[in-house]
Amino acid sequence: MRPFSGMKPLLLLFAVVVLSPVLARSLNPSLNDDVLGLIVFKANIQDPKGKLASWSEDDDSACSWVGVKCHPRSNRVIELNLDDFSLSGHIGRGLLQLQALRKLSLSKNNLTGSLTPNIAHIDNLRVLDLSENSFSGDVPEEFFRQCGSLRMISLAKNKFSGKIPESLGSCPSLASVNLSLNQFSGSVPAGVWSLSGIRSLDLSDNLLEGGIPKGVEGLNNLRGINLARNRFTGQVPDGIGNWLLLRSIDLSENSFSGNLPQTMQKLGLCSYLNLHQNTFSGEVPEWIGEVKSLETLDLSSNQFSGEVPSSIGNLESLKVLNFSANGFTGSLPKSLSYCTNLMALDFSKNSMAGELPVWIFAAGTEEVSLSEKKLSGSKNIPLSSSAGNALKNLQVLDLSLNHFSGEITSDIGALSSLHVLNLSGNSLAGPIPVAIGDLKVLDNLDLSENRLNGTIPTSIENCSSLTTLIVSQNKLTGPIPAAMSKLTNLQNVDLSFNSLTGGLPKHLANLPNLLSFNISHNNLQGELPAGAFFNTISPSSVSGNPSLCGSAVNKSCPGVLPKPIVLNPNSSSDSSTGEISSNLGHRRILLSISSLIAIAAAAVIVIGVIAITVLNLRVRSSSSTTQPAAALAFSGGDDFSHSPTTDGNSGKLVMFSGEPDFSTSAHALLNKDCELGRGGFGAVYRTVLRDGRPVAIKKLTVSSLVKSQGEFEREVKKLGKVRHDNLVEIEGYYWTPSLQLIIYEYVAGGSLYKHLHDGAGGNFLSWNDRFNIILGTAKSLAHLHQMNIIHYNIKSSNVLIGSSGEPKVGDFGLARLLPMLDRYVLSSKIQSALGYMAPEFACKTVKITEKCDVYGFGILVLEIVTGKRPVEYMEDDVVVLCDMVREALEEGRVEECVDARLQGIFPAEEAIPVMKLGLICTSQVPSNRPDMGEVVNILEMIRCPSEGQEEL
Ligand SMILES: *[C@@H]1O[C@H](CO)[C@@H](O)[C@H](O)[C@H]1NC(C)=O
Ligand SMILES: *[C@@H]1O[C@H](CO)[C@@H](O)[C@H](O)[C@H]1NC(C)=O
Ligand SMILES: *[C@@H]1O[C@H](CO)[C@@H](O)[C@H](O)[C@H]1NC(C)=O
Ligand SMILES: *[C@@H]1O[C@H](CO)[C@@H](O)[C@H](O)[C@H]1NC(C)=O
Ligand SMILES: *[C@@H]1O[C@H](CO)[C@@H](O)[C@H](O)[C@H]1NC(C)=O
């Protein structure tokens, strides 16, 4: 902004000019009035694009300046055209200097302030265009006092408010008035209706009220009138018939009422009549056929009734006919077939009946909307019976809410210009034709509420313009085609209430424009895609799919595949308890192991509720009165040697240290809300001891497989003796023949799996965190192996994170509780440990050693460094993590494998050797894998290379 740079002499003049033009001229008679005025004008406004750079006060004349036009003889400025110059600020008084100005056009700028009669010499002005600025406030009454020459005025698209000045009605020469898109209120000044010179009157988009006066005379030169989107009321007066030159009438979106005056039939030049959304009523008169020039006739959303007059057929120029949302009855007049220029036809939302005329498709129509017509006679959509060529122009086909049955034929593919296809609410059967993929420009597809069956064709991927896809409430089966994730324009998808199956394609998460995605009430399964839209999808959009998991359905996903065991805490009932447990013995022989597990799980719940309830009663009573008659016995103290009495039905609770002191109820223990997670050996719940200390309780779901009480206790006690900073401590256990609980130290930080894969945005693990987790985990495994304990189940959901970020490995050694190291049972845990399972499990002849833990550890290392699951299910591919990293290493781009969240901030000199170590740990041959002790040494060396350089 440099309005005054280099114009010091003008500084003084500026003040003077504003005060007295006469004085200014006398001070400097040589200075051209127009130059002076324009420079002052320029000084008042901002010109960020330098559009007025050519305006210089050193010039003698303004005639060569941008936007300025002078009279050829007088050389006075007569026009100022500064449209779209990006000017802002207030118009000062400078333009008052331009005494010869006839046209002032400042449209499409960002000028502000209110209008005063001082902006220019209005008495000379013929054209004043201030449209599309930010002017505001009332227009003062004086503004039009001297508007004798004014022919055209536009104040459109500003922020003017208040009443339209009465004085406007006394500008005798006005031909064009445009006050649209402001907030003018009140009624139109009476004088305006009698201005005889007006050709164009645009008052649309204001808050105007009142009506067109009954005795309207004048306006007999009117070509176009637009009163749309105001609050006008009353009837259209007969006088409208005098506007013989009228070409365009838009009264839409007001509250006009009554019928159309008969005088309107004289409007022979009128080509556009829009009465959309008023409260007009009565029948559409026969004379409408006289208004021969009509190209658009929109009577939609009124209260017209009766039959559509057949004289409509006389309107040969008709292109758009919209009678939607009225009370029309009867059938479509056959005469309509004479309207050969029709492009859009809408009779939807009426009470019409009859057949769908075939001519509709034959006339080159671009848009057909006949929804909610009760077209009872017709069965099939008469596509094939019409000339293929004619269909090419059809853009909108809305046959919703009719009674079409039959199939959608592949002829639909011929409608190559179709943007909208709405066949919802019919009785269409059969499949969605593959030819749907030929509709390349289709953006709206609604086939809902039919009886369509079969699958969603993958050809849908060719409808690349689709924004709305609705096929809800049909009988569709099969999967959601993965190809749908190519439809990047999709915004609204509704596949609800079908019988779709299979998982959700992961790449759906990449659809950038999704606003809604309703898949409720199908049989979809597996995990919801993770990603921007799906993380916040509303539960109602996914409900009614029993096998879906993810946070939106409030159901955590198991490690990989859904398990056959479904624990239902609500299924407990006292009467059935005995039955299940007594029958169990007989069935055991007959049933497969997996069904045994399922039955045992159910029994565990039932018995568990009772056991824990009793257990709590006992704890409470013992603390007060020390009653000896309770069913449960406890073992307290520092030693494991206590062996309290137990009677036949009761369980035994052993705490390795301190008083056993549960304060929680059975409800809390078995409450799903307290469930921390679920693994191969059972579910884990959080509960609180009476001293306020939380513990985690694991309920073994393999209960029917565990050893005798003696062996069970021996093994658990052995595990209980294992103490290491990086191992979750076992604090005690509870035993009955049908229910075994293991009581663990509670680790608050959640599992590593959650930290890596459920990342609650931003709170991700740094490289340092990750390295410490790897090292701590290695140390814990080395410790276990030293004590001759094989973990068997190393995976990220079994590594918990302690309060200071240290890893704590849990679930170790539980396989020892099983009667034998049954490969079947162990590998059935593959469901939860997929990807971590060493290859020797599959091979009966290879002995299983602690090297299976090394393998699982290697996978864990790669998982921690890459942030990827051991096995990722892609759309049509399964990516095995270690193969991927190995391949990347061979191709020399292993750094790309590091978690994207660490890219650019991880030390390659640590990350790469760590990944190599992970790969070595995952060697196929167990003896090629290092010991955990060696692994710990190598890791420590990677961290402190100074102590020894070892190339991996
Ligand atoms: C108009 O001016 C206002 C402030 O005067 C500014 O905030 C706005 O961005 C401008 N608009 C345009 C389109 O330049
Ligand atoms: C009135 O002005 C608005 C905004 O500039 C414009 O869109 C509209 O077409 C004008 N009306 C007429 C009848 O020219
Ligand atoms: C007819 O008017 C209705 C509004 O009343 C509108 O929704 C519809 O799109 C119009 N139909 C056509 C074909 O223009
Ligand atoms: C299809 O027609 C029905 C009934 O007229 C309507 O409710 C629905 O919104 C239409 N679908 C689309 C996508 O416009
Ligand atoms: C679809 O329904 C029709 C009967 O309307 C039946 O003949 C056909 O076999 C069904 N197709 C599929 C894929 O279910």
UniProtKB/TrEMBL annotation:
A Pfam match is LRRNT_2
Give the primary localization class. Answer: membrane
* Binding sites annotated in the UniProt record for ATP: 699
| Presence of keyword tRNA-binding | no
Q: Which GO terms describe its cellular component?
A: plasma membrane
Subcellular location per the Swiss-Prot or TrEMBL entry? Cell membrane; Membrane
Recorded topology in the membrane: Single-pass type I membrane protein
What sections of the protein cross the membrane? 589-615
Domain (Protein kinase): give its ranges: 670-942
User: Which reactions appear under catalytic activity for this entry?
Assistant: L-threonyl-[protein] + ATP = O-phospho-L-threonyl-[protein] + ADP + H(+); L-seryl-[protein] + ATP = O-phospho-L-seryl-[protein] + ADP + H(+)
Recorded GO molecular functions are: ATP binding; protein serine/threonine kinase activity
Q: Which InterPro entries match?
A: Kinase-like_dom_sf, Leu-rich_rpt, Leu-rich_rpt_typical-subtyp, LRR_dom_sf, LRR_N_plant-typ, LRR_R13L4/SHOC2-like, Plant_RL_S/T_kinase, Prot_kinase_dom
- Residues annotated as signal peptide: 1-24
Q: Which UniProt keywords apply?
A: ATP-binding, Glycoprotein, Kinase, Leucine-rich repeat, Membrane, Nucleotide-binding, Receptor, Repeat, Serine/threonine-protein kinase, Signal, Transferase, Transmembrane, Transmembrane helix
Q: Which Enzyme Commission number(s) are on file for it?
A: 2.7.11.1
Q: What is the designated name of this protein? A: non-specific serine/threonine protein kinase
Species of provenance: Malus domestica (Apple)
Organism phylogeny:
Eukaryota, Viridiplantae, Streptophyta, Embryophyta, Tracheophyta
